[in-house]
Write a structure and sequence with these properties.
about 425 residues, 3 domains, FAD/NAD(P)-binding domain, alpha/beta, 9 helices, five-stranded parallel sheet
């Protein structure tokens, strides 16, 4: 059995960044495992620009962003194993995988970084009534067909959901000559970045129907049309509000789910809110020496944030190998992060103050749109600090920095983050 300091599962933006940072922090025997035939992950099909504004301070396409990290990885001694599927991770960090060249085999890792990314929700996950014709695709599948395979998916398109991939595909399809009839969103707010609403819908006069959903799909062999209805505050269709769209294609952009089958089978604790692993301040999961970062942990809106988080995980994995610290993760005193009013989740979920040097970043999403607002950090009924915000939306990830001296004031081992509207 081969031994490695760090095994990274996934060679998308998260895995590449984690591997490079692990090398920079002293890990030398690094294995990056990727089930696809080339590295880069989802970035390879994201040919639009807008990547790298935070990290590289310039605007790049998805393949360009991935290519830069591939070049960084080549300058290390890391081993990249493509076309290889990981089957299992054990509690003692043995990673079992298989590929056409070596068959099924197992390696021993000093530390493991989970970077498997996420997948899209399909029609089966949301239960749209109607027939089951061809022409119903997820937005990511359509993106791959057009940008990688070179196939056009339809001529008259209706998009359900306002996730960023769906918004981007509204623009992409328009540029390829299709007629995008509308983007329909169940919630009373858009789930994508504001810049994508402006650049992908408004700039092309594509209407966005909030508090609407598809209530029927028509067609036998191919989609022939769809009925859209307004919904009430309980998300139930309102009779008499139906609109019929004559379309041949329906794209679904109804959310992303972290890819955590490996995590669950390994016995890693999963947060029901993020659908990703529960982690500590250094991205360590409930299994010592196993770390998680990127969209497998929680769904990000910007790849630059995936990179920063994954570098944190890679550095922590390298440090774990150097210190050879065993024992149960969570045996040290720790602070539990609690979601207060209008906060959907937090990452990390637990913070060990003894492992914090100066401060820790906490990432989260709000549950509704806010204008002028504030984020209140409390513990034991006492306010510790407030952070003013001008605008917050569910489609945009937020973060705050908690200094160590504030963590030391936590009462009862809990800190609560809440959002509230502020009157001008």
């Amino acid at each position: 059995m081969k031994n490695y300091d760090v095994v990274v599962i996934g060679a998308g933006p998260a895995g590449l960044a984690a591997a490079c940072e692990a090398y920079q922090n002293g890990a030398r025997k690094i294995l990056v495992v990727e089930r696809d035939k080339e590295p880069g992950g989802i970035l390879n099909q994201c040919i639009h620009n807008g990547f790298g504004l935070h990290y590289f301070k310039e605007e790049l396409t998805g393949p360009e962003y991935a290519g830069r990290f591939e070049d960084m990885l080549k300058k290390t001694d890391a081993e990249l194993m493509l076309d290889t599927m990981v089957l299992q991770i054990s509690n003692d960090r043995q990673v079992t995988m298989m590929n056409p060249r070596q068959g099924c085999f197992t390696v021993q890792a000093g530390a493991v970084v989970l970077a498997m990314g996420c997948r899209e929700r399909t029609r089966g996950a949301i239960g749209i009534p109607g027939t089951r014709p061809s022409g119903i695709l997820t937005a990511g599948a359509a993106q791959r067909y057009i940008n990688v395979e070179g196939y056009m998916v339809g001529k008259r398109v209706l998009i359900l959901g306002s996730g960023d991939i769906g918004l981007i595909m509204a623009r992409r399809l328009t540029l390829e000559g299709a007629k995008v009839l509308a983007c329909v969103e169940l919630m009373p707010y858009c789930n994508g970045l504001n810049r994508n609403i402006v650049q992908c819908l408004n700039d092309y006069n594509i209407p966005l129907y909030l508090s609407h959903t598809i209530t029927e799909i028509k067609g036998k062999r191919r989609v022939e049309g769809a009925t859209v209805s307004e919904v009430d505050k309980n998300r139930k269709p309102i009779p008499g509000t139906e609109k019929y769209f004559d379309c041949d294609t329906i794209l679904l952009s109804v959310g992303l789910i972290p890819e955590n089958e490996l995590s669950r089978n390994a016995g890693i604790k999963i947060d029901p809110r993020t659908k990703g692993p529960v982690v500590y301040e250094n991205m360590e999961t409930s299994i010592p020496g196993v770390f998680a970062s990127g969209n497998v942990l929680h769904v990000h809106d910007l790849v630059d944030f995936v990179t920063a988080e994954s570098q944190h995980a890679g550095a922590a994995a390298a440090e774990y190998c150097k210190q050879k610290t065993e024992g149960k993760a969570g045996s040290e005193p720790c602070i539990k992060m609690v979601c207060g009013s209008d906060i959907g989740y937090t990452v990390p979920q637990y913070i060990r103050p003894e492992r914090i040097d100066k401060s820790v970043d906490v990432f989260f999403r709000v549950r509704r749109n806010f204008s002028t607002s504030s984020l209140d950090v409390t513990s034991g009924g006492q306010k510790l600090i407030s952070y003013p915000r001008g605008h917050m939306a569910p489609g945009e990830m937020e973060h705050i920095t908690l200094p160590k001296q504030l963590l030391n004031k936590a009462a009862g081992g809990e800190i609560t983050i809440s959002a509230k509207e502020v009157q001008k």
